[in-house]
Amino acid sequence: MAQIDARYDTYTKDYEASLKKSHKSVQDFKSEAWGSFCEVGLPIARKGNEKWKYTNVSPVLENSYRIRQSSIESAINVQDLGVAATGNVKLVVINGKLSKEMSYGVDDIPGIHVTSLQDALETNSKFVKENLSAHASYADGFVALNSALFDEGLYVEIEGDESDVFVEIVNIATGSESVASYPRVLVNVKENAKACIIEAFFTEDITHHFTNAVTEIVLGKNSTLNHGKVMFESMDSVHMGVTTVYQSESSSFKSANFSKGSDLARNEMSVLLDGTEAECDIIGLYLTVDSQHIDTLINIDHAKPNCFSNIMYKGILDGNSRAVFGGEVLVRKDSQKTNATQSDKNLILSDGAEVDSKPSLMIYADDVQCGHGATAGSINDETVFYMRSRGLDERMASKFLIQAFAREIIDQLDDPGFMEYIDNAYESSIPNAILNLG
């Protein structure tokens, strides 16, 4: 077995335990991933590492996060943790392991097939073997670590041109302090299929937990996927998430990402537009308070001509919190007729808050329409004065303005239930973020 830095002894123990309970085919997969992790480690050194220049991940090593080995019987009310009333399939993942008892709807809805990645590898699923970790690179230490330590994982397959599948994957961290979980999902949206998948991350009666999540999505020709990610974990948690998307010809991918939890969080998404006339639309909203740190990195690769992409993010920052945004769009040489836009707007509510925003374009084709922009500022005094002249006090006027800023993102959601859930979640959090006003 490969040697590894002593700082990673905790992960070594979990890897050895995970390997013992895995099937042979999974053992081979995990062994390769572990070898890569031993080589690259975690991105602790930020000097010369542009991807992690503004984010210090050393807290991941400062706590002895461990996988919870025992079975979990929980009285969690999963209905209360749902993010959309219209969801017809719910998959509940507790500390990285699927709870079949708490999940429902898979057998009732045509067009969806769900199994564990472990079973899919064991039965020699061609798609799983060809695509698992084919898009999420082991050059990222967190991806390699997840690949070596995930439990059973989830394989979600959507098929049929008449499909109307709405899947909620509810990830819950629970149990003793310093629990680590490694959710792993591979999604296969087949040709002409349509689906909505929302991944939500919550905390139940736990402190100091670590979530390292990896999701890989493959979209077939003419397929459509509406995707959502909700990061509402506890304020003392660490969340490292990577989502990769592969798009075929004429496929459509829409993703909405929301965060207002975790002391330290990283949300990375990479999209490869590898078919003509593919479309990608990514929106996001984050709220940070106190000393929270949220890092967002979106990479879009236009590998084929006549494709469209849009990135639109907004941040609300208070206290001594910090946000990092990186939007990277690559337009390759032969990707003519590309239309790509990106925007990052931030509302700063305190003198101690800070945002580092770096939208970028790398264009190697000449017949394109591309643009990017970033802004950061405080609430406009003149606008507040105008609203106060209509009878509102300063606190209420400021709250309304912040809500209006956030709703430009929220109002773009297609599902009314999901929209209402997100709107209520942010509305209840905003008062806590403006205590320093007035």
Order of helices and strands: HHHEEEEHHHEEEEEEEEEEEEEEEEEHHH
Query: Helix amount, in percent?
Result: 10-25%
Mean pLDDT comes to: 88
Q: What is Rg? A: 21 Å
- Gap from first CA to last CA: 60 Å
Could you tell me the strand content as a percent range?
35-45%
| Low confidence ranges | none
The number of strands is 21
User: Helix segment count?
Assistant: 9
The largest sheet is:
11 strands, mixed
**Shape assignment:** globular
Structural class: alpha/beta
Question: Mind explaining what this structure looks like?
Answer:
The chain has 438 residues and is an alpha/beta fold. The protein has a domain at 6-275. 21% of the residues lie in helices and 39% in strands. It is built from nine helices and 21 strands. The strands form two sheets. Strands 1, 4, 5, 7, 8, 10, 12, 14, 16, 18 and 20 form an eleven-stranded mixed sheet that branches. The longest helix is centred in the N-terminal third of the chain and has 17 residues, at 24-40. The mean pLDDT is 88.
